[in-house]
Amino acid sequence: MASDTRPATVTGADAKIADAPASWPVERSEERFRGPKCGMRTDWVRMPAVDGEGTTVAARDYMEHPGAAAVLAVDGDGRVLLQRQYRHPTGHTMWELPAGMIDVAGEGPLATARRELVEEAGLRAEEWYELPDFFPSPGFSAERIWLFLARGLSEVPAEEIDFVRQHEETDLAAEWVSLEEAVGLVMGGALHNGATIIGILAAHAAARDGFASLRPAR
Questions:
Q1: For the chain, is the Cβ count within 10 Å smaller at the N or the C terminus?
Q2: Where are the alpha helices (DSSP H) in the chain?
Q3: pLDDT at 49
Q4: 174-195 as b/e: b if 16+ CB within 10 A
Q5: pLDDT tens, 164-199?
Q6: What DSSP element (H or E) covers 129?
Q7: Which residue out of 64, 107, 130, 169 is catalytically annotated?
Q8: Are 57 and 47 in contact (CB under 8 A)?
Q9: Contact predicate 123/117, CB 8 Å
């Protein structure tokens, strides 16, 4: 009989509530689709059996994704930058944080965040802090989004920006709103982008001690 793959349950004083890497055995894997940046794959995963005895194999479809980074930029007046962009899959224009996929070879989340802030907003920041990172749809996608808070902003001269906006980015609109107003937009149902909602609420919580509790980004 195959060994049981269920993780051990830890209780009492030693219990920890924290996500942790794990990998159940994959019997086989098949790529269903490959696009320029993302793909779809089916894995046949060995899992606990329904009756609790032994294991069974179940197919799981998911999107392979390189990940993304988003920036909550805060200016000297405590306002945050929101940008409006058309999102075809949702059928909406959405107000979001500057963000982009980690799709440059050798580039990590912080480097992507710095690049996107320049390309989308024409800004640089002296101070960078980590906000929560998250998996937006863990039952369907491997995508992970890293969030950063940026302060000490300055404008980048246009001649230094080696980037040409195209497609949806040609219609970007920008607004600066206070953090309190941004929270109101989230709670009032005006904003729906996951990274934007998490970034605003996390920054609002961190603002209680002047962002002193945030981890410097590395």
A1: N
A2: 109-121, 179-187, 194-206
A3: 86
A4: eeebebeebbebbeeeebebeb
A5: 677 777 788 999 999 999 999 999 999 999 999 999
A6: strand 123-130
A7: 169
A8: yes
A9: yes
Whether residue 150 is predicted with pLDDT greater than 70 in this model: the reply is: yes
Is residue 169 annotated as part of the catalytic site, yes or no? yes
Task: Determine which helix (DSSP H) or strand (DSSP E) holds 128, and give its type and residue range.
Answer: strand 123-130
pLDDT digits (tens, 9 = 90+) for 119-141: 999 999 999 999 999 999 999 99
- Classify residue 81 as exposed, middle or buried by CB count within 10 Å of its CB (0-12, 13-18, 19+): buried
All residues at 6 or more sequence positions from 161 whose CB lies less than 8 Å from its CB, including other chains: 118, 119, 122
User: Do 129 and 148 touch, CB atoms closer than 8 A?
Assistant: yes
Task: Identify residue 52 by its one-letter amino acid code.
Answer: G
Q: How far apart are CA 112 and CA 118, in angstroms?
A: 10
Name, in order, each residue with C-beta under 8 angstroms of 174's C-beta and a sequence gap of 6 or more.
Answer: 81, 82, 83, 84, 121
Tokens at 42, concatenated:
């089916």
